[in-house]
Structures are given as structure tokens and as C-alpha cells.
């Protein structure tokens, strides 16, 4: 969901961080479009680990407030919430709000994963570390594990375990890269890059991305 601050500047706001609120509120619109079309698994990339560690502290504080007030505050009715990322680097209030919301969400047929403090390479490292620790606890040696290690073994320790890999990855703002987003899970995904900034991403843009995805799948 890229381009919140650039959208705010384009719209003439004095404080570009205002774009984060518009961007956060726009998630509700996206989920409505997905529900209408029977899309029941959605992952939104709120911010990366590098965003949290390298950006101006005032901007990060504002973004975390938007997460707490809008994304968590709205509770995304009819969507079961999941969190993916390094929660230990989040502010205490944001981390606790996300964990409470995740625990309190009703079990439904729709799943929303919020990637926050996330990096795809971190996820793979964490998955391998968790796998090694689990196997060691069962008395399995590294050499023994190496002889039978599979893709499925690592997949079972990812942040997104139990949820399907994405069919389609959409990035707004005109950037043509994944920036570490679901790099394991998106190995076979279709990619769609849209020039519009995230708060300006409309239902028409969304349907265009889906049509492009459908055409490429038919041609495959």
C-alpha cells in the first residue's frame, strides 16, 4: 500500500503524514471489494522493518497511531485478523493492540493478514531458526535434518502458516519491486504494478488488476 505521503503532498496537505490516515482507512474499502468478489484471503503490507528503524520517529509514531486507531480500532468486521512481522520492534501500545485484536477476532471464513515490521528475508531466517529449534528439541541432529529438509518443512514455520500463498500481488505508487514482501510465498504469484498512489487506488483499479491477472492465467 505504497504512496500515502506522496498522495498527501499531491492533494496539497501541509503534513504529508496525513496520507497514512487516508491509507489506513482505505483498507476497509479494499476488504469490501474483496468480500463482494469472494476473495477471502488478503495480506496488506503496512510497513517494513526498515521503515520502522530508518524513518523519522514522528512519522513512525503517526503511522503506529493509525494502525492502532484505524486498522485495529475498526476490527475489520467479518475478517479474522492475523499479524506477520517482527512485533518486538513495534511500540508496546501497538504490539499489545495487535495481539489483543488477533486474539479477539471471531473465527470466520475471511482472513486478513497485517504485515507490519515485516521483511521477507527475516521471515525465512525466523522460519529456519524455529524449525531447527523444534527438531533439536526432538533429538534430531542438523545432519539428519539436512538429508530430509523440504520446502514444506520451512513453510510450516512461516508467519503465514495455515494460509494460502498469494495468487496476485498488487503494488501501488509506480514502484516496480516487491521490497521484501512475501518473497517466499510469492514465488509463483502474478505481479501487478499500478502507478496510482494507495489512497487514490479505486475499485476500477482493483478490477483492472484482477482482469490482468485472469488474462495471464488463461494464457499460461
Q: Measured on Cα atoms, how large is the radius of gyration?
A: 18 Å
CATH architecture: 3-Layer(aba) Sandwich
Per CATH, what is the topology? Undecaprenyl pyrophosphate synthetase
How far from one another are the termini? 27 Å
Structural class comes to alpha/beta
Task: Name the features.
two-stranded parallel ribbon; 9 helices; three-stranded parallel β-sheet; 220 residues; Undecaprenyl pyrophosphate synthetase; alpha/beta
Please provide a written account of the structure.
With 220 residues, this protein is of the alpha/beta class. The chain has one domain (4-219): Undecaprenyl pyrophosphate synthetase (3-Layer(aba) Sandwich). 50% of the residues lie in helices and 13% in strands. The chain contains nine helices and five strands, in the order H-H-E-H-H-E-H-E-H-H-H-E-E-H. It has helices spanning 4-10, 18-37, 49-54, 57-72, 92-104, 120-137, 142-148, 151-155, 203-219, and strands at residues 41-48, 80-84, 111-118, 168-171, 190-193. The strands form two sheets. It has a three-stranded parallel beta sheet, sandwiched between helices. Helix 5 links the parallel strand 2 and strand 3 (111-118). Helix 1 crosses helix 2 (18-37). The longest helix has 20 residues, at 18-37. The radius of gyration is 18 Å and the shape is globular. It starts with a helix and ends with a helix. The relative contact order is 0.15.
Amino acid at each position: 500500500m505504497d504512496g500515502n505521503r506522496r498522495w498527501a503532498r499531491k492533494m496539497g496537505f501541509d503534513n504529508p503524514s496525513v496520507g497514512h490516515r487516508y491509507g489506513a482507512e482505505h483498507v476497509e474499502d479494499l476488504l469490501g471489494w474483496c468480500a463482494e468478489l469472494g476473495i477471502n484471503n488478503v495480506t496488506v503490507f503496512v510497513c517494513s522493518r526498515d521503515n520502522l528503524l530508518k524513518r523519522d520517529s514522528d512519522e513512525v509514531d503517526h503511522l503506529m497511531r493509525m494502525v492502532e486507531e484505524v486498522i485495529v480500532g475498526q476490527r475489520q468486521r467479518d475478517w479474522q485478523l492475523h499479524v506477520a512481522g517482527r512485533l518486538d520492534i513495534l511500540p508496546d501500545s501497538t504490539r499489545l493492540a495487535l495481539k489483543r485484536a488477533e486474539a479477539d477476532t471471531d473465527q470466520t471464513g475471511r482472513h486478513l493478514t497485517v504485515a507490519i515490521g515485516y521483511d521477507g528475508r527475516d521471515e525465512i531466517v525466523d522460519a529456519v531458526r524455529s524449525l531447527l529449534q523444534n527438531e533439536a528439541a526432538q533429538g534430531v541432529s542438523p545432519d539428519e535434518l539436512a538429508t530430509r529438509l523440504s520446502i514444506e518443512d520451512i513453510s510450516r514455520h512461516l508467519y503465514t502458516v495455515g494460509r494460502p500463498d498469494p495468487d496476485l500481488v498488487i503494488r501501488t505508487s509506480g514502484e516496480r519491486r516487491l521490497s521484501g514482501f512475501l518473497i517466499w510465498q510469492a514465488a509463483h504469484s502474478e505481479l501487478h504494478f499500478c502507478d496510482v498512489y494507495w489512497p487514490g487506488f479505486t475499485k476500477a483499479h482493483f478490477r483492472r488488476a484482477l482482469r490482468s491477472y485472469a488474462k495471464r492465467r488463461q494464457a499460461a
